[in-house]
Amino acid sequence: MELLLLGIYSFFAWLIFFKFKWLPWNIISQVITITLPIIGLTVLILTLNVVAPSSADVRVINYVVSVNPRVAGLVTEVPIVPNRPIKKGEVLFKIDPTPYELDVKNYSAQLAQLRAQLVTAQANTRNLQGQLKAAIGSTQGVASKLELARLRVKQFRELSESGAGNAFDLEQAQADVANVDQVIAAVEAAKELGPLRALVTAAGVGWATRTIGRDGQLLASAIKQSSGHALLDQAALATLARAAPFPPIPDFVGRETLSIAVPIDYALITD
C-alpha cells in the first residue's frame, strides 16, 4: 500500500513540476517534495499500528465467562444466538422442569398429609388434655375416699383388738384402702403419661439412615426425615444402636459399607 501511495504522489509531482510546470523545480521545492511523503508515510504507519495493527504472528484472545446454574438438569432450549450481545434479564438457556414439577407435587401431597395428621393430632391432644383434667379433678374426691377408708381401717382395728369389732369389717376396710390406692396410682400414671402420649400421637413417621460395615457393625446413623420432635428422633437413633450388630453384607453386593433408610413409627407401650 505504501508503494501505491508513493506512485500516486510521484505522478502528481511530475504533473505539477514537469508536465505543466506550475511550480519551479529548485532546491526548496525538491526538499519539500521529498520531505512530505516521508512525514506522511511515517504518520500513516504509526496511525495504522494503533488503529489497525498488523503482524505476521497474530494471536486472538477470547474472554469466556462460564455460566453455572444453581440447579442441575437437562438443557432443553438455548434461545440466545452465539456471538451476539445480550441484555440483562434475557434467558440464556432453559432446563427441563419436569423433575422439579414432580417434586413440587410430591411435597405438596406430603404437606397435605402432614396437615391432616396435624389436625388429627391436635384433636387427640385436646381429648387427652380433657381426660387429664378430668382425672386431676377426680383426684381430690379419691383422696377424700382414701382418708375415709383409712379412718375406717383404724376404727375397725381398734374394735377388733378390743373384741367388740368384726374381723370381716376390718378386712373389707383394708380392701377398700387398697382399691383406692390403685385408683390414685392410675390417676398419677395418667398425669405422667399424658404429655408423652400426646407427643407420640402427634409424631409423624420418621426415616433414619443406618450405615453398616461388611461384618454388620453399625458405622453411622442419622435422621433422614424428622418425626417433628427431637426427643423421638433421639429415641430412633438409640433404637438403631441397640439393634446392632446387623446381618453381614452378602459377598455378591461387592461393597464394604451399605447405607439403608428405614421408616420409624412410634407407639407408646405402657405394659
Keywords:
3 domains; 271 residues; three-stranded antiparallel β-sheet; 5 strands; two-stranded antiparallel ribbon; 5 helices; mainly alpha; rod-shaped
Write the layout of secondary structure elements.
Elements: H1 2-19, H2 27-51, E1 75-77, E2 94-95, H3 98-162, H4 167-202, E3 206-213, E4 218-225, H5 230-243, E5 257-264
Written account of the structure:
The protein is mostly helical. The protein has three domains: 2-51, no CATH class; 119-202; 206-264, no CATH class. It contains five helices and five strands. A three-stranded antiparallel sheet has the order 4-3-5, covered by helices on one side. Helix 3 packs antiparallel against helix 4 (167-202).
How many helical stretches?
A: 5
Q: Span from first to last CA? A: 107 Å
Number of separate domains = 3
Categorize the overall geometry.
rod-shaped
Strand content: 5-15%
Strand order of the largest sheet: 4-3-5
How would you sum up the major sheet?
3 strands, antiparallel
Task: Tally the beta strands.
Answer: 5
Summarize the structure.
The chain has about 270 residues and is mainly alpha-helical. The protein has helices at about 1-20, 25-50, 100-160, 165-200, 230-245; strands at about 75, 95, 205-215, 220-225, 255-265. It folds into three domains: about 1-50, no CATH class; about 120-200; about 205-265, no CATH class.
